[in-house]
Amino acid sequence: MKPKNSKKSSAQKAAGQKSSENKALAVPGVDLRQLEQLLAFMSQNGLEEFEYASGDLRIRLKKAFADPNALAPRALPRPEIVVPHPPAGEPPPWAQETSAERHKEAQRPPEPPAPAEEENLYLIKSPIVGTYYACPSPDAPSFVKVGDEVAAGQVVCIIEAMKLMNEIEAEIAGEVVRVFAENGQPVEYGEPLFSLRPAGKS
Q1: Which class in CATH covers the domain with range 118-198?
Q2: 90 and 97 in contact (C-beta within 8 Å)?
Q3: What is the pLDDT of residue 23?
Q4: pTM (2 decimals)?
Q5: For residues 50 and 66, what is the distance between their CA atoms, to the nearest angstrom?
Q6: Could you state, in order of their start, the residue ranges of all structural domains in the chain?
Q7: In the chain, what is the straight-line distance between the N-terminal and C-terminal CA atoms, in Å?
Q8: Does residue 100 surpass a pLDDT of 70?
Q9: Bridge-based pairing state of the strands 122-125 and 192-198
Q10: DSSP 8-state secondary structure symbol assigned to residue 110
């Protein structure tokens, strides 16, 4: 048969262990409740250090802080921008490009004068947009060439537009000084085709 006081003996053992733990945590002359109140007071008022004295009893409480160096963010090094400098006596790249462009412009041949400014010549212009033909057929000679004398109303070329062959006539008599278009070349409205030196002018 089991003894009747088995439950009572186990409860007594647990109580004895708890009392022994309280004795281990107890500080002579210090009330643990009072110590907890002091800690709560420090926390509420944001105190980092607190000293309490009563008779021969003196308590000093201080909060523990983590290592500030461990939490402080490290400053990253700033990137350095290195601009290459040309050797002494040599202009920078942008100046070299500008000089090269000026040199190209200086080497360009002068533009020919406008057709209207050449000796007050008469211009035969295209009245429509189309394709210029200098001859009536591929095997035939050109209607006119430089140096030919043309009469007023003479056909000087053909302009093809919308599959229609349009004969272009000279409005005045004169000498053909220049032919601007090439056979089979597209031309625009008002584009110069020929320049004539009117008859009677030398």
Answers
A1: mainly beta
A2: no
A3: 47
A4: 0.42
A5: 19
A6: 17-62, 118-198
A7: 156
A8: no
A9: antiparallel
A10: P
